[in-house]
Amino acid sequence: MEKGRVHLIISGFVQGVFYRASTRDTAMRLGLKGWVRNLPDGSVEAVFEGPVEKLKKAVEWCHQGPPGARVAKIDEKWDDYTGEFDGFDVRYGW
Predict the structure, then answer these.
(1) Mind listing the pLDDT tens digit for each residue in 43-73?
(2) Among residues 8, 30, 32, 42, which one has the fewest Cβ atoms lying within 10 Å of its Cβ?
(3) CA angle, 77 as apex, 74 and 81 as ends, to 5°?
(4) What are the helix (H) ranges across the chain?
(5) Any idea where the domains of the chain sit in the sequence?
(6) Is 89:14 a contact under the CB 8 Å cutoff?
(7) Catalytic residue annotation
(8) Residue 85 DSSP class
C-alpha cells in the first residue's frame, strides 16, 4: 500500500468549533499519524501521514469539518512519507 504525506492549511470558520479535536479523532479512526494546530490568522494547519487512500479520506473530511465549522478553502500540499510521527497530536502555539 502506497504511503504519503499531506500538509493542509484550512481557512474559514474553523477555530472554536472543536476542529482540532475532531481532526485528531478522524486521523486516529483512519490510522493516520501527524498533528493539527491553530494558526494566529484563524486558520488550522494539519499534517497527516499514512496510506494514500486514507489520506484522501482525511482531506475529504477536512473539507467538511465538524458541525459548526464553515470551511472556505484548503491549501493542500502532497509530499513523500517520512515516518517521523508516533501518533496524532493536537499542538498548541505556533
Answers:
(1) 999 999 999 999 999 999 999 999 999 999 9
(2) 42
(3) 135
(4) 19-30, 52-64
(5) 3-83
(6) no
(7) 20, 38
(8) -
pLDDT at 94 exceeding the cut of 90:
no
Residue type (1 letter), 19: Y
Please state the separation of Cα 77 from the chain's center in Å. Answer: 12
**In whole angstroms, what is the distance from residue 68 CA to residue 17 CA?**
6
Grid coordinates given for 38: 491553530
Retrieve residue 92's grid coordinates.
498548541
Q: Name, in order, each residue with C-beta under 8 angstroms of 73's C-beta and a sequence gap of 6 or more.
A: 10, 11, 12
C-alpha closest to that of 89 among 35, 17, 25:
35
